[in-house]
Amino acid sequence: MSEIITGLRPRLAQPWPAGAGPFAGQVAIVTGSESGIGRETARALCAAGAAVVLNGRNAERLEHTRQSFADAGLTVVSCVADVTDYASCERLVAAAIQAFGRLDVLITNASISQRAYFADMQPEVFQRVFDSNVYGSVYPLKAALPHLIRTRGSVTFISSISALNGMPSGSAYCAGKAALSNLAHTLRLELDHTGVHFGVVHIGFTQNDADKRVLDAAGQPVLIAHRPPRWQKTQAGVAAIILRHIRRRRKRTVISVLGKLIVLLHTFFPRLGDWIVLTTTRRLRHFYE
Ligand SMILES: NC(=O)c1ccc[n+]([C@@H]2O[C@H](COP(=O)([O-])OP(=O)(O)OC[C@H]3O[C@@H](n4cnc5c(N)ncnc54)[C@H](OP(=O)(O)O)[C@@H]3O)[C@@H](O)[C@H]2O)c1
């Protein structure tokens, strides 16, 4: 895939137009930020004073998002890059350094989700979903790490409450997201001396863009399973929680009452937790399918 960097100004004066707020003077990369939660997190970071590199795979949609940010006076550039490709991630990080000269915050948000049972899934579909969540976090981090060490920066892996205990019809997604928790823990131990923050945010049901699609067992894009609207947080609300998590340099943030209940059941009453999932799988199939 060819990479496109848009919004770069030649010989950008340093510092870039200083915003006010808790992230003033900081530079962030948010992967998968042409849509959804990533876009609203990037917007919240800009509003809090940061300069942000937007990212996605679709050049047209990414440019539409970048332009809307620029029109609102926000300090952004964008870089088309597939985060499951390491060379593309190196160019994504280079775009941040070229535009703003430093990197303080990395949020690995890009992800492909699924709506398919393991027994039906084509192996290559499992791999696409898993890779987007695991290597789509590992590769941007690997490329960004030297810059983040320089600034004693912050890394946040965006995960899901479904990674806390697994979820029927989400095998590759849950396995990939769960791997991020162990990765963050290991990196905290390995890189403790660097002062870099490694955190994980487990997001619960959130309002989706109308055109959001996930993969079915054959790898076709389909609508996400129905989730009760009253259980869904707004994207802006989730973005605000992600920013608070970064500011407080938290190890783990679990969003929503349901997420906290899953942690409680998984830790202290695992058999009850599994009984609830098995019962709802039978009685509320549309919730999973
Ligand atoms: N929405 C929820 O209810 C919910 C719940 C729990 C966790 N989460 C997590 O929150 C994050 C954002 O979710 P969302 O609902 O906002 O999803 P979304 O609207 O589908 O946004 C995901 C973004 O990632 C991009 N992307 C996917 N694969 C990519 C790749 N290889 N390289 C670069 N960009 C890539 C997508 O663009 P293209 O595919 O068009 O390239 C899209 O812009 C994800 O990590 C998700 O797992 C969401």
Mean pLDDT: 93
What characterizes the major β-sheet? 8 strands, mixed
In the CATH hierarchy, the third-tier topology is known as Rossmann fold
Oligomer: single chain
Q: Give me the Rg, rounded.
A: 19 Å
Protein name: Ketoreductase domain-containing protein
Family: Belongs to the short-chain dehydrogenases/reductases (SDR) family.
Pfam family, one: adh_short
Domain Ketoreductase: 26-206
Description:
This protein has 289 residues and is of the alpha/beta class. It has a single domain, classed as NAD(P)-binding Rossmann-like Domain (Rossmann fold, 3-Layer(aba) Sandwich), CATH 3.40.50.720. The protein contains 9 helices and 10 strands. The strands form 2 sheets. An 8-stranded mixed β-sheet has the order 1-4-3-2-5-6-7-10, sandwiched between helices. A hairpin with a 5-residue loop joins strand 8 and strand 9. Helix 1 packs across helix 6 and helix 3 packs parallel to helix 4. The radius of gyration is 19 Å and the shape is globular. The protein starts with a strand and ends with a helix. The model has no long low-confidence stretch (mean pLDDT 93). The site of NADP nicotinamide-adenine-dinucleotide phosphate has 29 residues, from helix 1, strand 3, helix 4 and strand 6.
